[in-house]
Amino acid sequence: MSQFVFGVDIGGTTVKLGLFTSDGTLLEKWEIPTVTENSGAAILPDVAASINAKIKEKSLSFEQIAGIGLGVPGPVGPDSTVYKCINLGWGVFNLKEEMNRLIPEIPNVAAANDANVAALGELWQGGGKGKNSAVMFTLGTGVGGGVIINGKIVAGANGGGGEVGHIVVEPNETEACNCGKCGCLEQYASANGIVKMAKNMLSKCDTPSALRDMEHFTSKEICDLAREGEKMAGIIIDHCCEYLGRAMSFVACTVDPDVFIIGGGMSRAGCIISDTTFDYYHKYAFHVSNNTTIATAELGNDAGIYGCAKMVLG
Amino acid sequence: MSQFVFGVDIGGTTVKLGLFTSDGTLLEKWEIPTVTENSGAAILPDVAASINAKIKEKSLSFEQIAGIGLGVPGPVGPDSTVYKCINLGWGVFNLKEEMNRLIPEIPNVAAANDANVAALGELWQGGGKGKNSAVMFTLGTGVGGGVIINGKIVAGANGGGGEVGHIVVEPNETEACNCGKCGCLEQYASANGIVKMAKNMLSKCDTPSALRDMEHFTSKEICDLAREGEKMAGIIIDHCCEYLGRAMSFVACTVDPDVFIIGGGMSRAGCIISDTTFDYYHKYAFHVSNNTTIATAELGNDAGIYGCAKMVLG
Questions:
Q1: Is the C-alpha dihedral spanning A237, A240, A246, A249 positive or negative?
Q2: How many domains does chain A have?
Q3: Closest by Cα among A239, A252, A236, A238 to A284
Q4: Taking the model in full, what pTM does it have?
Q5: Does residue A126 belong to any structural domain of this protein?
Q6: How far apart are CA A75 and CA A115, in angstroms?
Q7: Are A90 and A146 in a shared domain?
Q8: Model ipTM?
Q9: Is B43 or A76 the better-scoring residue by pLDDT?
Q10: Contacting A residues, span 209-248, partner chain B, CB-CB under 8 Å
Q11: Pairing state between β B134-139 and B259-263
């Protein structure tokens, strides 16, 4: 009987691996470096070797392994084809076929985009536990996300499902986002975006702020100041949360999830983000979805391996 | 063997019924009046009587009927519970249980919101035929919609899935939508909305227009003038399509469908709407979804019965 499953979250610097029981308990997690040289040719062989070593170390048999779930930093088709992962050096190929070649003893392999598997992990064992559907907003260096409906990832026809960071929340913006368009949520609600927005706002007013005395400041410092009650930092956070709440209201009018989950580094600012975002969400949301909960992610960097495991378990 | 299925689209004035083969051919369609008196108590018994009469007329046996699909103008839960239908006078009850009581010989009953079933119908046999996922925007008196992913309706946790007419596309709007919020797509892209927007725009400029000579005008007249090349009518339609394209870009960043489908009375204006909307969609959409097709609905008022039938066939 299958009792175990591997979750493998492949990032640009490290590969995170987890060994789970089929009821969702993380037994052990570890990391290996991501070797991106030579078009990332060593990455999957390294993953396979690490899984084989763990099976040997734990004296498991292949029959006990339900499968392997893979999360990768790029778009993945429903048949496990990966369409370029710039961070890994990968071109286009089928992840399942390649893993099957490397470990034929574990035929069940599933793959998806890393932001999507993180959302699935949070729905399964994190901020959305017990719910059926969730949309996650990951506020990190950029803004990623994932849409889960009836426990399944909505990957999208072109791998664009859950790309909530590129919702144009400010159509009057003239500065361009990394993606080339202007006014994306990522320009205001990512760690980099909020710093840039703060500098802009500071240059256009003379409200006093401790930020004015710093040559460089981070999103964390803005959040900390806002939490300590500084007026200007509060205005900046409020602006970020208005855009975030607005984007969530658009998403609710589309899929009306059970819960929104805020993850990423910015989510560590806690309720100053989630409460203010809820107020704006409530302002813009269609009445039937008015009271949808906004939860905070709970699994941190482990969300990906949880989601990878869940993909396999179905 | 089950060879036939009934699709029943219950509207505020008439109930549309269709008898389909299980491969999707509409054999016959007919209508009965919707009797809303007495809290709509007669509606389902009338539907049952009409289905029983058709079975008798066609000399069918109950074993040949795969099931009955119902579309209703209000929110419907995943277990077929209807949560108030103001147009029908209905309160809260379980549609499947009630139909099972009325026709126990046909146990397989499915129910969903009418805008959602119309979207499913268009995906199955209309503008989205052959695709896997679609989001429909129905531009009628209001703006309704439906989201279909992997051939299944996304009803939403609170029945708010596909409520794309209430995406706030103009956060600076000060006039309220029927829903109570300000700046909903419905205020610019519905038949009523575009007339109101046109009057507003006419009052704020002195561009000549044939509309200025009419005491009352309709959305159709605006579309006709735009198609004939009148500059002012063109500006009005352009404005409507910008909001529509913007809303579609938000939806694409959430679920990235194979195709968008424009339905409702406004869709009869044809490519002047769909082409201009695509230009704006392209401006705002995330690059991976840049080229998603915008199709026109093909089934007209029959979309609902098609979708109802498809719900049963799965």
A1: negative
A2: 2
A3: A252
A4: 0.94
A5: no
A6: 10
A7: no
A8: 0.93
A9: B43
A10: 246-247
A11: parallel
